[in-house]
Amino acid sequence: MIFVFGSNLAGRHGRGAAKTALDHYRAKWGQGEGPQGASYGIPTKDDRLNVLHLDEIEIFVARFLRYAERYPTYDFQVTRIGCGLAGYRDAQIAPLFDKHMPRPLHHVWFDEAWRPYLKEGAVFWGNFSPSVYA
After folding, report:
1. How many domains does the chain have?
2. In a domain, 134, yes or no
3. In the chain, % of residues over pLDDT 70
């Protein structure tokens, strides 16, 4: 399972799901985007830790989904990127994934909280628990 987390372009994985990725999934300090160990970072903040605009995040989401399509033998566990420290709502972020998935990818698993925003056939990994990423 590849752990997909919200990151910043500086690659400072100090809090939230990024810290979990660093501590448990071999994310690389200083790398803000892409595959790293058993994780994949999707930037939601810039290199100064300012929140990115949704249109900027969407570019990184599309890149991730293209990557996931190239690796169908890996399972990807997508956290609620952008919905913690970046401050976006599920209803703002989840549709970015749906927009760039013409069909559900059965090896890309989403947080159950995103079920209302994704196409029928999407797969889910369970309920978000804030204590998991604290």
Report:
1. 1
2. no
3. 94
> Is 60 part of any domain?
yes
Query: Which string of DSSP letters, residue by residue, matches 31-53?
Result: --SEEETTEEEEEEE-TTSPBPP
Query: CA of 19: how far to CAs of 22, 67, 133, in Å?
Result: 5, 22, 7
* Domain CATH for 77: 3.40.220.10
Tokens 């797969």 correspond to: 123
User: Distance between CA atoms of 129 and 134, rounded to whole angstroms?
Assistant: 9
pLDDT in tens, 74-133: 999 999 999 999 999 999 999 999 999 988 899 999 999 999 999 999 999 875 444 444
- Residue 133 in domain: no
pTM: 0.92
